[in-house]
Specification:
mainly alpha; 236 residues
Length: 236
């Protein structure tokens, strides 16, 4: 007998008339959690110490803020119907943020390894902001691409997840549970602190690449800050 498809196995967690929530058509999640996260990232970039910023410092976060306003105005409520233009604009915004933060990581590493003097507060504040931005950016990437993105998830069109949340495999929890942005942010946070997956497993190759890249960036950032801070903190 042929193996069941992923969709059939998933449907087995529900009933014939009521499949799991993540495979049903739903209203779609609201934008405001995502908009808030993007607003935090943009604010962090505005306040990042000058040593870790590509100048002129105000240009990139200003462009990001403008894109965020456009996306919010064009799709202010639930993310269930997204045009190709909106999806491209969203991905462009994430790419700009990711590249800007990558440049900040490079500047942080160069500052620490060059041996130039740096105040402990500047290092800890700047490094912490870069690390937090990294967490939010990768959470947004996972949210944007898992099962085709938020609109596709709202319609339940993809029955094979890229990220396997434990709730998806539980017979009772799967009935009324589907991932929202906060779940992806949590996955990103745990990957940045543990440097590996914790309760949610990456299944697709692209998600494994992103998990590995995020863990590597987080490890380098935390390790270098810790090593440098030992030498510059008062009393060390």
């Amino acid at each position: 007998m042929a193996d069941q498809s992923a969709g059939a196995r998933a449907l087995a967690l529900g009933t014939a008339d009521r499949p799991p929530a993540w495979l049903r058509t739903t209203e779609g999640e609201r934008r405001w959690w995502v908009a808030l996260a993007l607003g935090v990232v943009i604010a962090l970039q505005f306040t990042l110490p000058d040593r870790f910023v590509v100048h002129p410092a105000y240009v990139t976060p200003t462009v990001e803020a403008a894109l965020l306003v456009v996306l919010t105005v064009m799709h202010p409520d639930r993310l269930s119907q997204r045009t190709q233009e909106l999806r491209i604009a969203s991905q462009v915004l994430l790419a700009i943020i990711a590249l800007t933060n990558a440049a900040s990581v490079v500047l942080l590493v160069r500052t620490i390894t060059s041996g130039h003097g740096i105040a402990a507060v500047t290092l800890l504040v700047g490094g912490g902001e870069i690390w937090l931005t990294n967490v939010i950016v990768f959470g947004l990437w996972y949210w944007e691409y898992d099962r085709g993105g938020p609109a596709e998830r709202a319609h339940g069109t993809e029955d094979v997840p890229d990220l396997l949340f434990p709730q998806l495999t539980d017979e009772h929890l799967a009935r009324d549970w589907e991932p929202i942005f906060l779940d992806y942010l949590y996955v990103s946070f745990t990957n940045s602190t543990a440097f590996s997956p914790t309760d949610t497993m990456p299944l697709s190759r692209w998600s494994k690449v992103l998990f590995a890249l995020q863990a590597a960036v987080s490890f380098v950032t935390v390790a270098l800050i810790a090593a440098r801070a030992v030498n510059i903190l008062p009393g060390s």
